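Hi support team,

I've been running sequence recovery on a batch of backbones for a student project. Most finish fine, but this one hangs at about 90% for roughly twenty minutes before it completes. I'm not sure whether the input is malformed or the queue is just slow. I've pasted the structure tokens below so you can try to reproduce it. Let me know if you need the job ID as well.

Thanks,
M.K.
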């Protein structure tokens, strides 16, 4: 984890305490960077997570799918030719 201290200096012990606090609070995600911003008696912690990979699931032609790898040519053509509708905002009178 990269740790940046801005607006002053703190001891290594205090820096480790902030790191442990953030890691403990967000133990389900990996934190890649921690910015410690000092402003007098106030401390602002800003942290950044490692991106998570996820599979997008969408409804296409009546099926919930993540990828089209297992579809035959007919279903792929049906997906390619479908009409995508736009959501418009109604004007107020």
């Amino acid at each position: 984890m990269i740790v940046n201290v801005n607006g002053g200096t703190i001891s290594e012990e205090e820096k480790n305490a902030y790191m442990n606090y953030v890691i403990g609070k967000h133990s389900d995600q990996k934190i890649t960077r921690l910015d410690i911003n000092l402003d007098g008696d106030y401390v602002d912690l800003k942290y950044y997570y490692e991106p998570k990979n996820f599979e997008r699931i969408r409804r296409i032609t009546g099926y919930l799918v993540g990828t089209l790898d297992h579809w035959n040519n007919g279903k792929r053509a049906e997906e390619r030719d479908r009409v995508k509708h736009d959501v418009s905002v109604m004007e107020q009178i």
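--
Follow-up from support: It reproduced on our side and the slowdown came from queue contention, not your input. The CA atoms of residues 60 and 85 lie 13 Å apart. No action needed from you.
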